[in-house]
Specification:
By secondary structure, the protein is α/β, with parallel strands linked by helices. Helix content is about 30%, strand content about 20%.
Length: about 240
């Protein structure tokens, strides 16, 4: 969610990038030579989970501008976004905000023209085993939003707060939406082999809501490559089950 990550990453670090730009980021993406030539041809541009009607023309313009500079892959945050100004030759994916918890939903998204769907970070291993598909993205690391709101919550962005159990949370604003994000990272890097054996192939490390720091990037990539458990991380429902 921050263009600075593109200056931290190396071509050897990943097969591609999913970028959720702010309105002001599009100019940087197409005007910076390094970003345009190195990253845009293998970048998936992700749209926010809600685009109000007054912003549709803006996003259609941004889509055309990015396509002219090498982007041909897009990720929708809402099923209705499939009907924005994408070219018929473009590849369009369903993002994690479009809940896909069973094979019926997978089939419905494929029928709508989505090339891949995204598993939810709230899924569990038993449900996952019953609906494994190679046409998917699977999150191995993320700071997970607990809710997204158009209405500003009654707290400041630069203040952390806790719930009754002592869990810490932060507030972020992105694309005029407010995200309440848990401070405890979700991480399944140590389960990568088992997930690969199930048939999953497209793993995602999501650095949204993280400050762009090369040391932090290297530490998470190290966890991925070495398949190590991250200290202080959570599995969410992966083992405890959906409730």
């Amino acid at each position: 969610d921050n263009v600075e990550w593109l200056h931290q990453l190396s071509d050897r670090d990943c097969d591609g990038v999913i970028m959720c730009p702010e309105p002001g980021d599009v100019h940087h993406l197409v005007s910076n030579w390094k970003v345009r030539e190195r990253w845009l041809p293998k970048t998936i541009i992700a749209l926010p989970p809600f685009v109000p009607g007054r912003d549709i023309s803006h996003w259609n313009h941004a889509i055309r501008q990015l396509r002219e500079n090498g982007v041909s892959q897009w990720m929708c945050g809402h099923a209705g976004q499939k009907y924005l100004a994408f070219d018929r030759r473009d590849t369009v994916f369903a993002g994690p905000e479009i809940w896909c918890m069973n094979r019926a939903t997978q089939a419905a998204l494929a029928k709508q023209g989505f090339s891949r769907f995204s598993y939810s970070t709230e899924d569990d291993i038993l449900n996952l085993k019953g609906a494994v598909s190679p046409d998917s993205f699977f999150m191995l690391f993320a700071l997970v939003p607990l809710f997204v709101s158009r209405i500003p919550p009654a707290t400041s962005q630069d203040v952390s707060f806790t719930d009754a159990r002592g869990n810490r949370f932060f507030l972020f604003k992105r694309n005029r939406l407010f995200y309440l994000v848990g401070a405890q990272p979700f991480c399944l890097a140590h389960r990568r082999d088992a997930l690969h054996e199930l048939g999953l192939r497209n793993f995602v490390l999501d650095f949204s809501f993280c400050l762009p720091r090369s040391r932090y990037l290297k530490s998470i990539l190290g966890l991925y490559r070495e398949k190590r458990k991250m200290d202080g991380s959570t599995l969410f429902n992966f083992k405890s089950g959906l409730k």
